[in-house]
């Protein structure tokens, strides 16, 4: 009989909430669907695709547009089928047998999953009680274990919603020695571009920065992630990725939409407004069951409850009202939605907490 190997035997598929819910605030998607002007561009873009041909493996046109958007030379850019694919490729190819991957906790759960799939030893550095990152603790772990060849974390972080300053990141990158630092900046659009390392990849020989079109740009459906790194790392990444990883429709649509930076930034601003409004509406509920609401630097708000059972009760109460959020132990993570969606989730939480 065919036996699955040990490393995959115990794995369970990534399971976002399935089912039909009136309000979806569980996946950190943008609540803004493309407007009419954007839809026109999308339609024109897909009409120009050469459907019988393979995609451009180098995504030349798209990388030029991305370069212009981020003000960086396209030679430092690699595109992926979502940043998810890039994470898998990085962990699979940049680590070899015996190498270890350092992740932080809490952080994006996919990192450790890929570590397990590709047989990397997972080393976890826990965050402080207030969910901030202790860079000294990370550095001392790196010094103690030269087998750690990659440190990977999201900045700002999913799920803590906190950003780590560029100064602290720089201290980590500079002192990481023979360890590659992968900064996943999926939510940087909502924080502060001055804290981003996208434009600084040439300064470091051990840095890869990831961005995605799934969050601020509202294009989760087309699957486009972007890696920024110096020439040597970009060449290596390009060599190991699957050649046709980004399909022609995605390349064409993204090239058309990312050319309008002003439009995308005005949409990001709307999401930030929604997030701030959601945070302000929820903070008065702190006290009793709800211990903390973290000041958000992403497009979602994290609530911290006294204990997992209390968070679970609110989560299930929301589901019963057909509102999906993300449940993670003591925490609930709620994506910023439309005004009506925010209002509905706030009212329901208020009711479930017994606040009058
Ligand atoms: C949502 C998210 C991504 C985006 O993944 P894509 O595959 O590009 O959609 C990456 N990293 C983190 C931390 C995320 O939360």
Layout: helices, strands, pairs:
Layout: H1 6-9, E1 23-24, H2 36-47, H3 60-70, E2 77-80, H4 82-94, E3 100-105, H5 110-117, E4 121-126, H6 135-144, E5 148-154, H7 166-174, E6 180-184, E7 207-212, E8 225-229, H8 231-240, H9 248-258, H10 261-282, E9 290-293, E10 300-305, H11 308-320, E11 323-324, E12 326-328, E13 331-335, H12 339-352
Parallel strand pairs: 1-11, 3-4, 3-5, 5-6, 6-7
Antiparallel strand pairs: 2-8, 7-8, 9-10, 10-13, 12-13
Helix pairs in contact: 2-9, 3-9, 4-5, 6-7, 10-12, 11-12
The structure holds pyridoxal-5'-phosphate.
Textual characterization of the structure:
- The structure is a single chain.
- By secondary structure, the chain is α/β, with parallel strands linked by helices.
- The protein contains 12 helices and 13 strands.
- The protein has helices at residues 6-9, 36-47, 60-70, 82-94, 110-117, 135-144, 166-174, 231-240, 248-258, 261-282, 308-320, 339-352; strands at 23-24, 77-80, 100-105, 121-126, 148-154, 180-184, 207-212, 225-229, 290-293, 300-305, 323-324, 326-328, 331-335.
- A 7-stranded mixed sheet has the order 2-8-7-6-5-3-4.
- Helix 7 links the parallel strand 5 and strand 6.
- Helix 10 runs parallel beside helix 12 (339-352).
- The longest helix is centred in the C-terminal third of the chain and has 22 residues, at 261-282.
- The mean pLDDT is 96.
- Pyridoxal-5'-phosphate is lined by residues 28, 82-84, 108, 154, 158, 184, 186, 212, 214-215, 220, 225.
């Amino acid at each position: 009989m065919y036996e699955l190997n040990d490393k995959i035997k115990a794995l369970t598929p990534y399971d976002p909430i399935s089912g039909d819910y009136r309000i979806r605030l569980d996946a950190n998607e943008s609540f803004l669907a493309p407007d009419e002007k954007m839809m026109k561009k999308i339609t024109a873009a897909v009409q120009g695709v050469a459907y019988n041909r393979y995609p451009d493996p180098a995504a030349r046109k798209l990388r030029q547009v991305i370069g212009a958007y981020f003000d960086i030379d396209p030679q430092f850019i690699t595109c992926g089928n979502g940043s998810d694919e890039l994470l898998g490729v990085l962990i699979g190819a940049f680590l070899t047998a015996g190498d270890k991957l350092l992740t932080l906790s809490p952080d994006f759960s996919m990192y450790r999953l890929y570590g397990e799939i590709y047989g990397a030893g997972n080393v976890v550095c826990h965050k402080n009680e207030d969910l901030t990152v202790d860079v000294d603790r990370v550095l001392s772990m790196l010094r103690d274990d030269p087998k750690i060849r990659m440190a990977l974390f999201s900045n700002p972080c999913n799920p803590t919603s906190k950003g780590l300053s560029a100064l602290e990141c720089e201290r980590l990158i500079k002192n990481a020695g023979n360890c590659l630092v992968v900064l996943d900046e999926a939510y940087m659009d909502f924080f502060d571009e001055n804290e981003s390392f996208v434009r600084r990849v040439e300064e470091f020989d051990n840095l890869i920065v990831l961005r995605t079109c799934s969050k601020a740009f509202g294009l989760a459906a087309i699957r486009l992630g972007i890696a920024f790194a110096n020439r040597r790392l970009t060449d290596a990444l390009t060599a190991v990725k699957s050649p046709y990883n980004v399909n022609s429709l995605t390349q064409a649509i993204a090239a058309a939409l990312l050319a309008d930076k002003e439009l995308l930034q005005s949409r990001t601003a709307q999401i930030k407004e929604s997030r701030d409004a959601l945070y302000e509406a929820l903070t008065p509920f702190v006290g009793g069951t709800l211990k903390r609401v973290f000041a958000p630097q992403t497009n979602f708000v994290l609530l911290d409850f006294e204990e997992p059972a209390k968070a679970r009760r609110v989560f299930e109460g929301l589901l019963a009202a057909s509102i999906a959020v993300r449940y993670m132990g003591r925490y609930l993570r709620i994506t910023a939605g439309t005004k009506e969606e925010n209002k509905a989730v706030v009212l329901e939480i208020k009711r479930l907490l017994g606040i009058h």
